């Protein structure tokens, strides 16, 4: 699988991922060959490129849950764009309530952990995709923290609107890579965020709880950017803490063209580290809500070897039972002595940010069911 910028797409290339329109109708299925009309559609949609299968590459795994998640993202980004434009035009955002409830219906009370997949962003759609992803994550996290539908609704609504001011960031700044931003650029970004909050306060009839969530969230994140930690501002309750965790995870792992995202593991370690002063009850709810280290995924260890995750550790997601490819042995990373010698450094993912899953786990389970010693032959 390779990423091909829109201007370099050619007729006959095979799609690695489906393409949907804003109604959620699939326009092009995976493995479809691009036509000249398809290439024109991609450019009209404003997509910066596509994931393309190499000539002899088979289709990678793609579950129905993956398909539904991407379909929901595509539809909802278009809806959120309309909502923000209504607000900027001085109109009430009539679709805000329905989008909020759709996010909650899909992700707010899931018994299973959600499979969260990042989507590629351009400077033009970054605000919409980021805000939607924060809303999805916040809905899932708060659903594990409290059974209060009204407050969960406030959290999701705040997530959808918190970054509206960033639509006014000049192109000369928004098109820069993060590491290229100057202090003056960062000051401009902060002013735009503050103006966005003022716009919401003056143009929208929003519940005071929603506005409070956005206000505290923006202040705490500014404190974190300036001082490296949140020191003085205390959030009033779990709503703002949920929004911060969702915001930071999405921002750190976002797939922006021209920039390498941080891994899920690196983002989790940041959120979990005491120096960053994240609410650890919320971080724990995050690990209960989102599938970060799934069973069967391939991992890289700190000693340079690789293996697969056999069982999850709900107490510490980075300390599960694993099978090492190096010596064909099972290790319990929950054992302190084992953990001193080998730790999960990262998860292996495909180019489009999906976990690399191995069929060795299925072989391991088959051996257990058959009463055999669960060993797996190493590949040479």
Features:
380 residues; alpha+beta; Molybdopterin biosynthesis moea protein, domain 2; Hypothetical protein af1432; 3 domains; five-stranded antiparallel sheet; three-stranded antiparallel sheet; 12 strands
Give a written overview of the molecule.
This protein has helices at residues 36-45, 64-88, 96-107, 126-145, 149-161, 171-174, 183-203, 208-227, 238-253, 264-272, 280-289, 336-341, 360-369, and strands at 2-5, 14-15, 19-20, 26-28, 49-53, 120-121, 255-256, 298-301, 306-311, 321-324, 330-332, 344-347. Strands 11-10-9-8-12 form a 5-stranded antiparallel beta sheet. It is 46% helix and 11% strand. The model has no long low-confidence stretch (mean pLDDT 86). The radius of gyration is 22 Å and the shape is globular. With 380 residues, the chain is of the alpha+beta class. The chain contains 13 helices and 12 strands. The chain has 3 domains: 2-53, Molybdopterin biosynthesis moea protein, domain 2, CATH 3.90.105.10; 64-289, Hypothetical protein af1432 (Orthogonal Bundle), CATH 1.10.3210; 298-369, no CATH class.
